[in-house]
Amino acid sequence: MLKKITIFILLALPMSVFAQNFKFGHINAQEIITVMPEFTKAQNDLQALEKQLTDELKRTQDEFNKKYQEFQQAISKDSLPANIAERRQKELQDMAQRQEQFQQDAAQQMQKAQADLMTPIYKKLDDAIKAVGVSEGVIYIFDLARTSIPYINESQSTNLTNKVKNQLGIK
């Protein structure tokens, strides 16, 4: 008898789980982030930093090109003693190495700045998504911008993008 009851429970349990009305939601985080004021400010800050770094890189490149041309002209005229030519060549090599190092440092600086500026924005978005998820009583909120989901049945999954925008105070 106990065996029959156990089998019945094991068979009925999955049916009761499927009988529940699960609620799912989905959003498009990209659509939300691009209208967040913090995102606009972060993009402006990143563009300003990129311009600074690009300007500095151009300045050093122009300086290198000028010195290189002067060196080439002096070599072609045979007007430099060997020890001075050697010293200027070494100077040019050092400049090229510093410029290469600056490019690497600039790329790292841009990556760090982007992470520093975007991390709090994503945290704020994630907090808003969680708040909407709790208030709407959904089990999952899928982000169509971060996860490739080829199909969503709109009758069984609610688009919560606008509710997350409202949670963030965005119209």
TrEMBL record:
Pfam families on file: OmpH
Keyword Acetylation: no
Signal peptide start-end: 1-19
Example GO biological process: protein stabilization
Single annotated GO MF: unfolded protein binding
Keyword annotations: Coiled coil, Signal
Lineage: superkingdom: Bacteria
InterPro entries according to UniProt: Chaperone_Skp, Skp_dom_sf
Recorded GO CC terms: cytosol
Residues forming coiled coils: 39-112
Stored PANTHER family: CHAPERONE PROTEIN SKP
Family: Belongs to the Skp family.
Name of the featured protein: OmpH family outer membrane protein
